[in-house]
Amino acid sequence: MSIPVAIVGLGVAGQIHARTLAATPGAKLIAAADLDEKRRAEAARAHGCRVYPHWRDLAAAEKDLAALILCTTTQERKGPLLACAERKLAVFCEKPPAHDLETAKTIAAALAESGTLNAAGFQYRAHPLAGRMKELAAGRRVLAAQTLLARPMFQLVAEGKAPKAFYSKAACGGPIIEQGSHFVDLLRWLTGDEPVAALGAGDLGDTHPREGRDCEETSVAVLRHASGMLSTHIVNWSHAKTLLQMRLLGADWDLTWDVGKPSRLHGHVDGKPVNEQADAEPFEIELRAFLDAVRDGDAAKVRCTYADACRTLAACIATAQAIERGTTVAVPNLFP
After folding, report:
1. How many Å from the N-terminal Cα to the C-terminal Cα in the chain?
2. pLDDT band for position 1 (50/70/90)?
3. Which class is 124-283+313-330 in CATH?
């Protein structure tokens, strides 16, 4: 019997998850909610699911759900997440997990208290080369790490292919929180080395118009981790192509993951060269791992929990504050 699933929010992420569900044996999209009438109609036509204008309408009508996938804007996630906790309905929440840390803590506490199975959408953990990088780095001291995330986001906004929210920090959180958080999260997962302090800088740039935009063209974060490791994270939203890279550096070893198609992991470990490639769709892998967890009642199959995603959010919010203030900001320990 198929797992009955609903999606709330039919933007880009919600549509990808809907297609993944359609291609996943043992799971079925039975309902979806979105404020946009056109998106609702397209979902109903493409997937044969029932559609609703609001998550509350969906929650009131759909009593037999096994799981919910939440892809709304961060400002609109508290209500449905708390409703899932109250109902003990397994929930997959896209990143970032919340708009602010107090809301994040409230939701995480409710999910934990109710025992609700939950997951968050930091998909790069799910890529097989991320797992291989973690395996090769295990037990080795990382002296420094470097990440790069470059995408033509502002051009996509100008072309109507991305939401105007990417111009506004109030709407999307800014580049470090909205997208740079992917690699901050990945580094936490790879090393187990928590960020404790953040310093940052940002520049609006002039490749795209500044009017109506406070999201930086280029943002740079420097994080100090508990071990003393330093990591730098560069996010650029005006480069013509997409470039994604994670690099780990030890005293006598190095690993670089170029996240593309195909993805390539290369470097040197134990004096031997590393050069591995793999094609994968981590967006699909992470969702299917969540569905497996729901089917088997096994939370250990989840790649990233909501609470762990909140730890990443704390580091990224501290970085955003550091950029605004021009000072070092401590990363709060959300769950001491």
Report:
1. 41
2. confident
3. alpha beta
